[in-house]
Amino acid sequence: MYPDVSLYIDGGWSRGAAGRTIPVLNPATAEPIGAVAHAEQSDLDRALAAAERGFKTWRKVSAFDRYKIMRKAADNLRARAEDIARIMTQEQGKPLAQARMEVLAGGDLIDWFSEEGRRAYGRIVPARADGIYQLVIKEPVGPVAAFTPWNFPVNQAVRKISLALAAGCSIIIKGPEETPGSCAELVRAYADAGVPSGVVNLVFGVPAEVSEYLIPHPVIRKISFTGSTAVGKHLAMLAGKYMKRATMELGGHAPAIVFADADIDAAAKLLSANKYRNAGQVCVSPTRMLVQEPVYESFLDKFIAHTKAVRVGDGMDEKVQMGPLAHARRVEAMEGFVADAVQKGGKLRTGGKRIGNKGYFFEPTVLTDVPRDARIMNEEPFGPVALIAPFKDFDGAVEEANRLPYGLAAYAYTRSAKTAAAIGSAIESGMVSINHHGLALPEVPFGGVKDSGYGSEGGSEAIEAYLNTKFVTQIGI
User: Fold this and answer.
1) Three-class SS of residue 14?
2) Which residue in 118, 106, 303 sits closest to 188, CA to CA?
3) Is 183 considered catalytic here?
4) Residue 321's pLDDT is what?
5) Which of 48, 72, 99, 103 is the most buried (most CB within 10 A)?
6) Is residue 1 scored above 90 in pLDDT?
7) How far apart (Å, rounded) are the C-alpha atoms in residues 227 and 466?
8) pLDDT band at 476, cuts 50/70/90?
9) What's the CA gap between 362 and 265, in Å, rounded?
10) How close are the terminal C-alpha atoms of the chain, in Å?
């Protein structure tokens, strides 16, 4: 059974002050399965006051003791993985296997960042005169406001919460209204581990109203957002107006370059699997497959064969490989992208249509010969549509890969060490994965450049955005 979802403020679960709720739909059926509490301004004020108190308490807890509490939260998440995965699949649609993997990976992320908190070292700078000590100290930045998306309701929230807690900050997280249940269970894992009241707070509501109230508020010292580039730019502008530190993980339109000397079988298999993971609703999803001319037809045939073999259905069925899109808006977006591409001369090789009239299912789709002025060649598809195009030489591939303002992820396949080194250097992207898909591990940086945002939510770099650097110089008297 899907649980109705409450707000979590100051150590307690509660409904919103006005009792309003937002329906939660199962994307496989388009029918309501539950409801999530709607926060009012008074609820946000409670969360802000709680976060302010929680920060004063949590910042005094030693990094070692914070680490121990966080490790308990990771253990809680792993122990509850099966139940949380079922909640996630009901509300988001992804297959159970992918949901399980997301929850278990969340435990690994908590473990990693809990360790990073223990190693947020300062340093001593050698002085120019005797008796002077120059100390560089790392301090938590303060209460954080974080905004997380519906496509990975645990994976994105767990990064923000864990980074805040590891650094000694408190946090108010605005969870995704479409997929609130699994996000709430993540928060419960922290709460049951012994995180003090007020340190973690969870609210839901109208996204624009929540962000535009929390970001300017003087209690909030740092912003973290994962979502579309358009919304991210607006929130970054708002954060800048109030001099709030911000981490922005925004949209992408990832090129995947397949050179003539690549292992074509491996490239087609890995790229198709990653293209249709989570129904393509992944910010780092490979979208523009750029294939060198001598192997273009071979790659295309293999990719289409893999696409046609994808089993689509209700994610609760263990045999299903791709579930529904998250909501009706994504189906409409896919239909619009495909129609526009075909109208402009693109060729529909397979898929391109909604499946049935129940739920939000869409066929895995391949388009070729799509002109550059088609919308899908310039806007992030965020769905199960792959674009495949030939290229002649290295420079042509790089030109197309770097053409768009996005710069989140990119992929390349080649057997040449020289080509691999050159393409890794030439592509304008925060992340480049060559001959495999090795992104989003806890220990590696995760973030983009250009319109894909700034800052990292992975690796040792990530915690820096949650810490202030203080310089203290003293002389003995």
Assistant:
1) strand
2) 106
3) no
4) 98
5) 99
6) no
7) 19
8) confident
9) 26
10) 68
| Tokens of residue 74, six digits | 């990771």
Average pLDDT (30-41) is 98
Six-digit token pair at 356? 């049935």
User: What is the residue whose two structure tokens read 């001598």?
Assistant: 294
Q: How far apart are CA 317 and CA 95, in angstroms?
A: 7
**Which residue is catalytic, options 116, 283, 363, 457?**
283
Q: Tell me the pTM.
A: 0.97
Q: Please give the class, per CATH, of domain 254-441.
A: alpha beta
Q: Tell me how far apart the alpha carbons of residues 369 and 387 are, in angstroms, rounded to a whole number.
A: 8
Q: What are phi and psi of 18, to 5 degrees?
A: -95, 0
Question: How far is 438 from 286, CA to CA, in rounded Å?
Answer: 13
Give residue-wise pLDDT tens across range 166-225.
999 999 999 999 999 999 999 999 999 999 999 999 999 999 999 999 999 999 999 999
Contact 195, 168 (CB under 8 A): no
| Span 280-302, average pLDDT | 98
Longest Cα–Cα distance in the chain: 81
Is 400 annotated as catalytic?
no
pLDDT of 364-386, one tens digit each?
999 999 999 999 999 999 999 99
**d(C-alpha 278, C-alpha 266), whole Å:** 20
Catalytic site residue from 40, 177, 185, 249: 249
CB–CB of 85/99 below 8 Å? yes
Tokens 């029918």 -> residue: 31
Options 3.40.50.300, 1.20.58.480, 3.40.50.1240, 3.40.605.10; CATH of 7-250+452-473? 3.40.605.10
What Rg, from alpha-carbon coordinates, does the chain have?
Answer: 23
Domain boundaries, the chain: 7-250+452-473, 254-441
